Records
---
Amino acid sequence: MASWQELGPGNFILATAGELLNTGLVLGSERALVIDTGCGPRQAAGILAAVREITPLPLVVVNTHAHYDHFFGNAVFAADGVREFWAHENAARTMAEHGEAQRRMLDSAHEPEMAAADGELAEIVLPTALVKDQPVLLDLGGVVATLFYLGRGHTDGDLLVGTQSTVFSGDLVEQGSHPSFEDSYPAEWADTLRQLSALRHRYEFLAPGHGKSVSDDFVKTMANTMSTAIRMAREAARETPNDATKAIPILPYGPEQSRWFMARLRQTA
């Protein structure tokens, strides 16, 4: 388990092994906020232990979206006494409807209990508190964290967390690899990134869902690259309507992600 990196006062990220998930931590005087809990009880136990090295405060959890590597660790935090799990309403619905199916996506060598649904800590613990269209302010004691939704992007339920110094973006922003398009809305994602960029004057740091903290230029480049890919794909579809996949070799993503990109672009057009 990597060590915590402090971004702003009382704002930390922890890059965990494997998926290199960034778990966020925001400290108040009365309670602390944990952002994303990992892909199962083993990873979550490491995250919780790291949290407890920083603070003994009661915890609140936010799941930024409904992909297993961000919420399958909830049961470990519930066992530590957490009762307040926040997510966007769309993400909560997806977790309830498709959470069990996501067990198949796990590496059973790393999370055998979660993959096999073996034991209480392998239960899927769903959000207990929902964010809809309006931001929610969480008072942690002298520190306020704002939970807010800018629109569809990586999924239809990407929740962001903002503090006085930092915005935690979940997988709306990823550093070190191409964006993941499996459940995405590519055209809307580019617009959502631009909305995020427009808010960057409020924050000094941006913590992505995976990878190192990034600048506003990174977010703008990600949005522009996605818009360019959309334009290229649509032009290819007009030129070869029966085989729009011919655009894949020229898209600015790797072949596998480009295939997902094309599939989602057609589905969400």
Note: The chain has a mean pLDDT of 94.
---
Amino acid sequence: MIVRRLSNDLYIFYSFVFLLDVIHLFWNNSVLYIIIGVLGMIMTGISFPRSDRVFKILGVILLAAGIFFFFSGEATFSDIPLYFAGNISLLFLLSMLPWMNSVVKAGRYNKLLQSLLGSNAKGLGGLYVRSEITMVSLAAFLNLSSATISQDLLKEQLKKVNTKVRNSFILMATLRGYSLALLWSPLEILLATSIFITGASYLEVLPWMLLIAVLGISIDSLIGKIIFNKREIEESLSLDKGSGQSKRKLMQFIMALVLFLSFVVFLGNVVQLDFLFAVTIAIFPFAFLWAMLVNRKKSFLQIGLPTWKWKTNHLSNFIVLLLSLSFLTQTLNASPYLKYLQDPIVALEGNPLLIMLFIQAAFLVMTLLGVHPIATMGIFGGVSELLIGAFPPATLTILLAACAIATVPSAPYGLIVTITSVALRMNPYQIVLRNLPYSLLLGFLGIGVALLTLLIY
């Protein structure tokens, strides 16, 4: 009973650690940073038994590698707490994301996706284009809920279509559209992490990420239209009665997205806050004001508070991954073995294209082996000084973010693929094989745009 009570109140402890990290951002005190690191170690210890098996295995591997690098270097035991403090700010961002999702639910914007996808369509080719564009437009705020809602609706709408064709359509349109939204969303942890590593400006990176998204939508929509164009829908849902209301909600949603991006850019460029911190602290006040403007303040708090508590209490997987990764990255930087990771990049010095292809291959291979892209991102963060020497910060951010996000539809143990495999009753690796060509394509688009930025920067 006591253990269960403590588990339900973990959000208080975690929030206290996040508060200390915010204080440290404005008051750079070494003792405070050590305290944060010690609390980070406690968080890791609490979270290990509560995390999923995959993350336990990954955490053990990361910690074991970190211990090996620790003893191979000249670091002392007093340095260990410092090594667990590095990624606390990423955890703070993750804990705040439920507030944005809660205002979307409170404002009933999750039903907007249903309305946009539910109108009549004559053929699968046209529906594929509409489905993917809708996913890209709304997944930036709706996140995973956009995928689950659209998959349920499309399953119903395509129930008379051949099962194999239907499943292929759904997993392509929803997963690919979802990943294209992540490329530019300030709420996406992979984009935020890449900016965190390189120190680039979000405003500087945003146009290029949007360019990758537009190219990805255009090419994949054309491919989907060609693949599915000959197939007609025998029966479709008709939700046109609320089309006027849907248009109003869509305009509200787009306006809110533009205002949120503007708010983040203001905090980063005018107030001069770190991008990651700017996004994190912008979420709750913006979501609260949004809820007030649409007269949903009460619903927002009723949905948001329990959701935030539950999500923060269940950060265990990310705590194990990110804090173990922080330990590994810091010990690696202090280890003589760092040069073995640097050697392939040094050997490719003067060949930016080969370095980019190496980075893309590393993300894809590690993802297929079950390693989360954040972990791979952290490994490259360990050699960030060398990479920044080879590329401007904006170019490196575009490269890391695009190559990491490109693997999302092809990650066999990723959350979105797992949700889709359950919804469609498919083996995750069947989904991976169907989306692997797309992951390669999106990665190449990212590399192409990154090469283009080299001509400018």
Note: The chain is about 80% helix and 0% strand.
---
Amino acid sequence: MAAKIKWFRLAPPQILVLGFACIIFIGAILLTLPISNTTGKPLRFIDALFTATSATCVTGLVVKDTGTFFSTFGQVVIMLLIQVGGLGFMTMATLFSLVLKRKISLRDRLILQEAMNQNTMEGIVRLIRKVLIFSLVIEGCGALLFAIRWSFDMPVGRAIYFGIFHGVSMFNNAGFDLFGHFNSLTGYVYDPLVNIVVMFLIVSGGIGFIVMSDVVDFRKNRKLSLHTKIVLSMTGALILVGAVVIFIFEFSNPKTLGSLNWGGKILASFFQSVTPRTAGANTLDLASMRQASQFFMVILMFIGASPGSTGGGIKTTTFTILVGAVIAMIRGRDDIVLYRYRLAQDRIFKALTITFMALFLVVGVSMVLSTTEDSNFLTILYETTSAFGTVGLTLGLTQHLTLVGKILICLTMFAGRLGPLTLAYALGPKKGKELYRHPEGKIIIG
């Protein structure tokens, strides 16, 4: 009874952290079983823990090849971890409660509010229902299209299995694939159907369920919220700018775009612009890309997806606020105005806090890894940012990580999935409101 009372005293951020940690631990135990891999021998716990963390945090970094090392049982475990991790364990718990017709308690609603990054509990259960419906429909459509396409390359049963796995993986922005030998989707660089379906799944999972709901209800409401407008406009801008930059930098690179025709160049440029937004799939050899392109992808990975989505990073809205703050300061304005709405000061402070905490985390982990791993700094920074943004892209370092490196990347993926601010609240919950203010002081800046 005492343990139960103590559990109920935990703050919502603490419950989220413990919940995800429990799922990762259970997944790691299952992946250590001999039945989970093709060798018939138990997998080292650190490798199982790394894989479970990567799957639950929908990242996609792997130390063992998913398609060749893991058995069908192990692959199904990974797929389930991706689904639970992408939608959130509280969303799955709510699903079972709805199926069993149990009442959603006030405390559950508070945890759901924290998990979905909402400002209010109003309509939270209704949003969860939409999340489940959207996920099932979009993943199902993606799986069907994949199965039809791959039925021309493999037996129908295997094509259906591949379709389901990749539909779940790509929509949840996990980046796990079953094609083996760490090749990802490089064999489909010219395939428009595979490229377009994967990009659609990635963007759908990355814009967030709140935006999806808003877009679906547009015909009825005839308007979009400020949040939706910012997410859609910034997502489109980042994809377009990213495609143009990659196209320019890699156009003459014989190891990437240089060997493709014009259609392949354009398709691959857009694909590699979309996938750093926390997806983890690739159609080009990332290690062969120029350093300018690799560093630009680091920036895209750091920005990441949007709030309330299956992706990581500091989020598109946070980046928009930072850009808005710079523009407002240059223009000499006191307020950040977006689509004729003035942003509250607490939103600006939160954006700055998230960005600096994320920056300190990425830089700190990269500095430590530069002493424990035998690789150049850009490769290490790429790996760390990929882990924080729950992207899953790598320049080949993941398979060669030391024990310390694997632990650090696991912690980075965990922090990236939950968000540095949620972890900070979990470690030290917010105190009560201050009853006084200090006198204003002035310092010289610039």
Note: Residues 8-427 form one domain.
